[in-house]
Amino acid sequence: RALTNELEYQANHDSLTGCANRFYFETRLEALLQDVKISKRRHAMCYMDLDQFKVINDTCGHSAGDKLLCELTTHLQTIVRKGDLLARLGGDEFGLIIVDADAEDAEQIAEKVYEFFQSYVFQYDDNAFAVRASIGFVQINEHSGQISEIFSAADIALYAAKDSGRNSLSFYSATDESMNSRHQEMSWLPRLNSALQNDRF
């Protein structure tokens, strides 16, 4: 039983930081999307990407980057609520599912995460790094569609945050003209790749 529990933990958690991994994050998000169609509950998702993370790895080595990710996870866990889900989605990308929160409450939690990054300094040996992040935010409700659409919306909001100069929080809006433009641009990538592979130019 102990071995089974250990294997289950390893399957659902990031081996470096100990928070949830992408697999568990997507599993939980899918379950919430299925439920929200019936229950009309409200959730939200934050997609976080550290700005200039490569600088820390290049300057101090990957051990410094690993220490930062672990330290950052510990700090973020103290900010989010007990029922929310923080996950490392890969590399220096993190995801946060804000569970059972209306639009205003969810945005306040996202703002708290953003405010944390405004003063977070990572110390390693004699080096100090101001760690900042670009954050994309998207609401989750009965109209949200499939999990791929949630990630797409969060991705668009994240890139809007990057486009505005990084270190910012961007809220996804289906009626925002710049975000619709970004969505159309992103949709061309698979079409172009397909055209290249099939000689359809």
Provide an overview of this structure.
With 201 residues, this protein is α+β, with helices and mostly antiparallel strands. The strands form two sheets. The chain has a five-stranded mixed beta sheet, sandwiched between helices. β6, α6 and β7 form a beta-alpha-beta unit. α3 crosses α4 and α6 crosses α7. The longest helix is centred in the C-terminal third of the chain and has 21 residues. It starts with a helix and ends with a helix. The mean pLDDT is 92.
Largest sheet: 5 strands, mixed
Structural class: alpha+beta
Order of helices and strands: HHEHHEEHEEEHEH
User: How far from one another are the termini?
Assistant: 57 Å
Proportion in helices: 40-55%
| Shape type | globular
Q: How many β-strand stretches?
A: 7
Weakly predicted, low-confidence segments: none
Q: Please report the number of helical segments.
A: 7
